[in-house]
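Figure-free illustration: sequence to structure, shown twice.
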Amino acid sequence: MLTDFGRILVFMVVSVIFVIGAILAAKLVRPSRPSKEKLMTYECGEDTIGSPWVKFNLRFYVVALIFLIFDVEIVLLIPWALVYKEFGLQGFLIGGIFLFLLGLGMAYEWRKGDLEWIRPKPVPPVLKKEPSTVKVEVQA
């Protein structure tokens, strides 16, 4: 005679007990043979050199975020492509508008230079001072 929340609580407790039991069982069964190589930090098979606090280029993160944004939007097109015929011309036009906006966003990112790996440095405009045209008369 549990409520819905009680069932969820029982499910969560049983799942936590199951995970802890699986970890303990694995610890009892597996062999434990520590060595110098096993205790070292794994870095792609290479010995670590220098400080781990290396400044990464911000472009890694920008490209990754742009990829995630457009990847999620493309995933939204899969269900639309499967059922747009059921909605007729209206469903097709809505998908076309979505694709147009997606293309517009991609063109904006391209024009902005965020898709280039090496972003060109902006050149600030320089104002040239022209010689003053004011004549100064000297009276003698």
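We now fold a second protein in the same way, so the two outputs can be compared directly.
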Amino acid sequence: MSKRVVVTGMGAVTPIGNDVPSFFEALRTGKNGVAAVTRFDTENYKCKVAAEVKDFDASKCFAPLVRRKTDLYVQYAVTAAQEAVDDSGILGQVDENDLAVYVGSGVGGIGTICEEEEKLLARGEAGVNPQFVPKMIINMAAGQIAIRFHAHGPAMSVSTACATGSTAIGEAYRAIKDGYVTAAICGGSEAAVNPLAIAGFVNCMALSQSEDPEAASLPFDQRRAGFVLGEGAAVLILEEYEHAKARGAKIYAEVCGYGATCDAHHVTAPDPEATQTIRAIRQSLEGVDYDPATTYVNAHGTGTSLNDKVETTAFKACFGEDAYRLHISSTKSMTGHMLGAAGAAEALACIFALQENTVPPTIHLEQPDPELDLNYTPNTAVQTQIDTAISTSLGFGGHNTCLAFRKVQP
């Protein structure tokens, strides 16, 4: 028999807040996390803004020696995981063999790769850090989290590009739902604000080149011209419902559905027909009793021309005329695109909407595209009853993921 799955812990390191309370307050007030890049001199780069994590203190989780042996994306992931684990009180309450880790990344330790390549070119083989490989490999966030919390269940690093965080949560949900484990630490992390990543995204025509932080990340606005690179991590603790209830855990929301498909269409562009995006959304809502008027949709909403059109097409196909009753927004207008961490941060935004009965806004939505005529919650959060929330994530390679959450029902 399928088991129910609930969220009992949350952690976040984001461009608009380095813990969950700060992140939630920023969603409520429509805080802009986009600013001029500080990590390197952008004088000779077309892109000059990003959504960087500010004032991050790795020493809260890492001793200096250990910090030097870990890439920034791992530091973000472990910090968010520590907050989520502490929040949940799960340690000591579940058999370590029944605690899984599903934490992914889109590009992993790309910062470490850049640093060590410079050392190789300058000093040859002997200059490369012995910790290079374990610092940069894409599974190391999951590995470090498993080591820290003695999680002896599956420890997997999912990577589905910009859908990674959502896919990781969805696969953790399935593992608990089908009885393979009792609880899971799951989410995504990314730290790719560096010259190589920005140059790569610019040259494949994906990034906004606006120098104005207030006019760069523009989901659903007719001025949109690409996404803004973000970074950070978000982690959820998922737990089997009866286990959580028996131990008196705080329960924030229930995960009630998950859809995963692939366009199999193009390496970067979504299928304009949105066929598989539609299918992923429908999969996530199969068997879910919901009212469109009390449903929040956290759209992938990158601010690229194709993405925003495809999502609007998908919402109209899935919900028909009821699509106009949905409360939709793109929190990437605030956080930028956190790549492999985006879906996990946006899952937190769904839980925020359910907990606070508040729809976070799509900030900077000043000139709505007439073709995108749904309710995208422009500029200001809206307080209204929210009982169900879904989050869509679309990734390079054609990955489509949709997560569905609801308020916990007896």
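Summary for the second example: The domain at 5-246 is CATH 3.40.47.10 (Peroxisomal Thiolase; Chain A, domain 1).
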